[in-house]
Amino acid sequence: MAPDPRDGSFSMFEGSMMGGYFSPKLDESFTKAGLKNVTVHRLEVPVGKRIADESLRQLSIEPFKLTIPAVTGAAKAVRLGIPDHILNGLGERSERDMVEAGATFGILVVCGQKPIS
């Protein structure tokens, strides 16, 4: 599924010159860089309430408490046109959602082998 250009994360990547459609091209990029046997794996990692163990549940939320404010600050700094009502309080809203409903965080893992000369 292609990213929605109205999505804030799409705008962030476009603004960073990385391009909003970079993820479907990861395997191609690694191959062009000279790696062999390139594979892309998508992991769906549960966060917050979707984790049964309370201590692990809390640990799963901690990274977002750091990254969301950094991302929203960057979005404001580069003036991507994302409305303030979306960015303001995003960290608190996200934490509340993770605690109350849980979430799933998608991660792309790209693997490749450097050719032996």
TrEMBL record:
Protein name: Uncharacterized protein
Originating species: Colletotrichum orbiculare (strain 104-T / ATCC 96160 / CBS 514.97 / LARS 414 / MAFF 240422)
Lineage, highest ranks first: Eukaryota, Fungi, Dikarya, Ascomycota, Pezizomycotina
